[in-house]
Amino acid sequence: MNENKTTLEVIAPTVEEAIDKGLSEMGLSKDDVEIEVLDEGKRNIFHFATRQARIRLTVKDPNRSIYNGSASNQSVQQPLVEETLKEVKQIPAPETVQEKISFEQQVAKEVTLELLEKMGVKAGVSVGFAETEADEKPVISVNIEGEDLSFLIGRKAETLNALQYLLSLIVAHKLDHWVPIQVDVQHYRTRRENELRKLARRAADQVEKTGRKQVLEPMPPNERRIVHMALRENAKVYTESTGEEPYRKVSVYPAEDQKQS
Q: What b/e string do you get for 146-177 counting C-beta neighbours within 10 Å, with b at 16 or more?
């Protein structure tokens, strides 16, 4: 930051944290700056930021001496789960492959139960393996069962995905290595996968009958992958993902179109 700099934009989980970080970076107090909130951010039920807050600090007196720092308009960010990981201790893992996998499952289960307890949620947890391709690394499945747990799923599984992300980070920190984990609530993902496979087959049938492409609804990457995999062995059609996130979708085409292109 040079002497001519009079503004600083800061990103942090909350507006208050962004202001504190900006003032610390500039070496000023609130009385020395004008504060403009550009984005208040958004948080989920776990109180983690799904969208960071963003503010702009403008020095009232352009001749005021401020600290030197990094380049202008620096974005100051804080890991989403910093507070969660502070007291998590690493655990040495067993040596054999089978023991290691079983141990990872047990850790995933214990972390999930602890997380649910802190949230005040009464539920049972079972672990196993998610369905994957033969050449893919095993993915630990964690299924949460209980009464009226729809709030853990959320709109378009946004809350469920946030829970999965948080759990994966904590487990990785405990084990000191990354472990693929898929979290499900009352087998929601299993039901959704079955629905997507049926949807994919219906779309393929329509393409075969009409000779025209079918465009499915926008889906997140993991759901688009299910559709692609469901039709991978169908020689009469092919699939492509088109569009930009979060409106990216799967299109199903007649196989003849691919041969002609």
A: eeebeebbbeebebbbbbbbbbbbbbbbbbee
